[in-house]
Amino acid sequence: MNEKKWSVDIVIEEHDSEEGGSKTRAQARLRTSDTDTLVGIGRARRNPNDPEIPEVGDELATARALADLSHQLIEATVSDLEAATHGRVHLTG
Asked: 69-75: long-range contacts at Cβ-Cβ below 8 A with a sequence spacing of 24 or more?
């Protein structure tokens, strides 16, 4: 069996918004075994009228950062395949 380990570190920053409420920014940093790094960014903003539950902003910003990271990883895969095959690639299911 050939096993590889990739790591994702998530850094979350929260600060008060000038409009009221708070803003949360998450950064998901993927490091592959080849030392390649991709970084996904996600943001969330709490409406000043909503209750202050910091975990909600953390979760939403992190989910968005991971979704961004996922899209970047798919794009990198397509790019690598197109470079290897010298042609267009269409990923399916």
From this structure: 69/8, 69/28, 69/30, 69/38, 69/39, 69/40, 70/40, 71/40, 72/38, 72/40, 73/30, 73/38
